[in-house]
From TrEMBL, chain A:
Species whose genome carries this gene: Sphaerochaeta halotolerans
Residue ranges of every copy of the ABC transmembrane type-1 domain listed in the record: 80-294
Xref: PROSITE patterns: ABC_TM1
Pfam families on file: BPD_transp_1 (PF00528)
Annotated function: Part of the binding-protein-dependent transport system for phosphate; probably responsible for the translocation of the substrate across the membrane.
Keywords: Cell membrane, Membrane, Phosphate transport, Transmembrane, Transmembrane helix, Transport
GO molecular function, one term: phosphate transmembrane transporter activity
Annotated PANTHER family: PHOSPHATE TRANSPORT SYSTEM PERMEASE (PTHR42727:SF1), PHOSPHATE TRANSPORT SYSTEM PERMEASE PROTEIN (PTHR42727)
Underlying gene: pstC
Lineage: Bacteria, Pseudomonadati, Spirochaetota, Spirochaetia, Spirochaetales
Subcellular locations according to the entry: Cell membrane
Transmembrane domains' residue ranges: 20-44, 79-105, 117-135, 155-174, 206-227, 273-293
Family to which the UniProt record says this protein belongs: Belongs to the binding-protein-dependent transport system permease family. CysTW subfamily.
Protein name: Phosphate transport system permease protein
Membrane topology: Multi-pass membrane protein
UniProtKB/TrEMBL annotation, chain B:
Keywords: Cell membrane, Membrane, Transmembrane, Transmembrane helix, Transport
Gene3D superfamilies: MetI-like
Source organism: Sphaerochaeta halotolerans
Gene: pstA
Family classification: Belongs to the binding-protein-dependent transport system permease family. CysTW subfamily.
Superkingdom, natural source: Bacteria
InterPro entries membership: MetI-like, MetI-like_sf, Phosphate_PstA
Descriptive protein name: Phosphate transport system permease protein PstA
Domain annotation ABC transmembrane type-1: ranges: 182-403
Single GO MF descriptor: phosphate transmembrane transporter activity
PANTHER family registered for this protein in UniProt: PHOSPHATE TRANSPORT SYSTEM PERMEASE PROTEIN PSTA, PHOSPHATE TRANSPORT SYSTEM PERMEASE PROTEIN PSTA-RELATED
Membrane topology value: Multi-pass membrane protein
Length: 306, 419
């Protein structure tokens, strides 16, 4: 060892194992690309099988208002409709509430209060979604039924599922929005206050507009989460596609359908089996697009201040 | 004196100022109210679960204990010989033969005999159950219900019992337990960890320590963020097509000629664990990256300064310095896997399993799947055991998370001592 150092005092020693380790680590990192490719290939391939079935047409799939595999009707609008209803209810409920919590945490709460509240939000965020599903079924639905009447609210309904999805994404919105608001430079706040604005005026007219891109990214990500949420709708929204705009009626969402069909014994290569992949593809495209936009929007924000 | 300004008279300005501060006040109240509502939901969630775990139930026995042994009112009073006698005399010959071939009556413990008699002879069934709140406030209703019922009795039951933890599944909620589901969950988590931890930490090390700012590396990073936001049910579809179907030979154990269950068809623990491994991989990568970012560059530089190579620096300095946070991040990711339901339902976890999983090629059920199955049933008392299972799941998660925090504190204290 010492001998070699003397012969090559400053030369960089070639070490094979360093190269090998770097290659292995690189392959680990490539593995995640493989997952994305795997998801894309499988969804597209099985969807292709679904659409090449003579009973299915792309136009019928995209515009049909009935999803009844039994009688060869494959219109995905009722499933999409239910997904949109639950997600919209969730967002209408969770965005204002989550934003208010975030403003309170970022602008008003003392460090001590914030230190107490943030773990509570983390606990809420860490509870498995199946528990929220149970909550929707045993608490929210009876609550809605006692408020609006047993006759108007069905046992399974999209309103209950949507509200509970709202509770589910609430902590996510609150913590991410708080990060976005806290990232607004203090100078902007001070400038707003120095011009004579009250605290709330500064918050609404200076801080929130400045945090807008971070906030929109948060809301988009929450929407994507709500659309992909499965167990709550599987338990509380109802089993059976239903083209309705009434949130008190039962209606099955895209995710609910996938879980119900795959939970039973489906035979491979049947239309039923392939249909869950086609719906999975729709779901993947929607959520993937939302996630991409969300990241684009939030990177705009960082360009503004850094 | 100049009292007029562009905002009107002094009095008007004051009025405006008062109005503005009032608005400010109102909004502050709204913010606090919103926060209180968020906390309230957590409380409601926990209360609604706890409410279902305790409460009065009305039970009807098919055969009374007094009919088995005259004068006795509960099985606990019976002696060993009386228990054996009662079992022998009252079990139908078919069941008796099956039970004897599994394990002779004489060799069974008193407890096993009691549960045997309860299951096959007494056959208690829950007629109606009340939650904790209902048990306290609806005494009249319970009384009225009991007045109409003959041959049934009212007991206050806690649905979480030691038996609930160690019993296997049963069609009767009173005898059902979650042993197989808990074992299934543990097996799955083990596989998930074995797949996701090495690859996840490896990826994170590459991205943080090696990767230059090239197009490929930026794509890798973007891809990981996107994967972490893909709905979990999509991973279920991936697992169904890849592990259950395409790799059925591997996941059912056929190519290792160790098929544990011929009816599993690839819907095995291995498939489930690998699917969840893919699901938590991006989370582990992101958490580990955060941990590595927390290591100060001066540590790396001083290591290079004394002549260490890149890998020596990473292995002996960067990883030990960030190990506590990597561990915490991994445990958080695994607790996500522990509560995950949808992907496992999609790849076809079994719903009713009464044998413990024997190997990674066994069929399985997990705790969240049990909760899903029980919640979905319309009968009231299944809700009660679903709630009991939820409590067990939440306690497991709590233990896991506080274990992570404890380990982190302990490790970082050690680090400080060493430093």
């Amino acid at each position: 060892m010492t001998q070699r150092h003397i012969t090559h005092p400053f030369g960089k020693k070639h070490r094979l194992h360093e190269q090998v380790i770097e290659t292995i680590l690189f392959l680990c990192a490539l593995f995640s690309i493989l997952i994305t490719v795997g998801i894309a290939v499988i969804l597209v391939r099985e969807s292709f099988l679904f659409f090449s079935d003579q009973k299915v047409t792309l136009v019928g799939f995209l515009t049909g208002k009935t999803w009844q595999p039994m009688i060869d009707l494959f219109g995905f609008l009722p499933l999409l409709n239910a997904t949109i209803i639950t997600s919209v209810i969730a967002m209408v409920f969770a965005i204002p509430l989550g934003l208010f919590v975030a403003i309170y945490l970022a602008e008003y709460a003392t460090d001590k209060v914030r230190g107490r509240l943030k773990p509570i939000l983390e606990v809420l965020a860490g509870i498995p979604t199946i528990v929220y599903g149970y909550f929707a079924l045993t608490f929210m639905t009876p609550l809605l039924r006692s408020i609006f009447g047993q006759g108007t609210v069905e046992i399974y309904n999209t309103a209950s599922a949507g509200l509970v999805i709202g509770i589910l994404v609430l902590p996510m919105i609150a913590t991410m929005a708080e990060d976005a608001i806290s990232a607004v430079p203090q100078e902007l706040r001070l400038a707003g206050l120095a011009l004579g604005g009250t605290r709330i005026e500064t918050t609404f007219r200076v801080v929130l507009p400045a945090a807008l891109s971070g906030l929109s990214a948060t809301f988009l990500l929450a929407l994507s989460r709500a659309i992909g949420e499965t167990m709550i709708v599987a338990l509380a929204a109802g089993a059976g596609p239903n083209m309705t705009f009434n949130p008190f009626e039962a209606a099955e969402t895209i995710t609910g359908y996938i879980v119900r069909i795959s939970g039973g014994d489906v035979s491979y290569n049947s239309v039923d089996y392939n249909s869950i992949f086609a719906l999975g593809l729709v779901l993947f495209i929607i959520t993937f697009t939302l996630n991409l936009i969300s990241r684009k929007v939030s990177s705009l924000f960082y360009q503004e201040y850094e | 004196m100049q009292t007029e300004s562009m905002f009107g008279t002094r009095a008007e300005s004051l009025l405006l100022l008062q109005k503005r501060s009032r608005v400010s006040m109102i909004w502050k109240v709204i913010f606090i109210f919103a926060t209180a509502v968020a906390v309230l939901f957590l409380l409601l969630l926990l209360i609604s679960v706890i409410d279902s775990v305790f409460g009065y139930i009305v039970v009807r026995n098919e055969v009374e204990v007094s009919a088995l042994v005259s004068g006795a009112s509960s099985l606990d009073e019976l002696s060993r010989s009386q228990l054996e006698e009662a079992a022998k005399n009252n079990l139908s010959s078919g069941i008796l033969r099956r039970v004897e071939s599994e394990k002779p009556l004489a060799e069974r413990t008193d407890r096993e005999l009691r549960s045997l008699i309860e299951q096959y002879i007494i056959k208690p069934s829950v007629l109606k159950s009340w939650g904790l709140w209902g048990s306290i406030t609806k005494q009249d209703e319970i009384g009225a219900f009991m007045a109409d019922q003959a041959d049934s009795y009212l007991i206050f039951k806690s649905w979480i019992t030691p038996e609930f933890l160690i019993n296997d599944q049963s069609a009767n909620p009173l005898n059902a337990g979650i042993r197989t589901a808990m074992l299934g969950s543990l097996w799955i988590i083990a596989i998930t960890f074995l797949l996701a931890f090495p690859i996840g930490v490896g990826s994170a090390i590459y991205l943080e320590e090696y990767a230059d700012d090239t197009k490929l590396n930026r794509l890798l990073q973007l891809n990981i963020f996107n994967l972490s936001a893909v709905p979990s049910i999509i991973y279920g579809l991936l697992g169904l097509a890849v592990f259950v179907r395409a790799l059925e030979g591997v996941t059912s154990g056929a190519i290792f000629s160790s098929v544990a269950d011929t009816t599993a068809n690839g819907r095995t623990i291995l498939s489930g664990g690998l699917t969840l491994g893919l699901l938590v991989l991006p989370i582990i990568i992101i958490n580990t990256q955060e941990a590595l970012k927390g290591v100060p560059d001066s540590l790396r530089m001083s290591s290079y300064g004394v002549g260490a190579t890149k890998w020596q620096t990473i292995w002996s300095h960067v990883l030990p310095a960030s190990f506590d946070r990597i561990l915490t991040g991994t445990i958080l990711a695994l607790s996500r896997a522990l509560g995950e339901t949808a992907p496992l339902v999609v790849i076809g976890a079994s719903t009713f399993i009464s044998v413990d999983p024997a190997s990674i090629f066994s069929k399985f059920t997990t705790l969240p799947i049990q909760i899903y199955q029980w919640s979905a049933r319309p009968q009231g008392s299944y809700r009660n055991i679903a709630a009991a299972a939820i409590i067990v799941l939440l306690v497991l998660l709590l233990v896991l998370n506080s274990g992570a925090i404890y380990l982190r504190d302990k490790l970082s204290k050690k680090k400080r001592m060493a430093a």
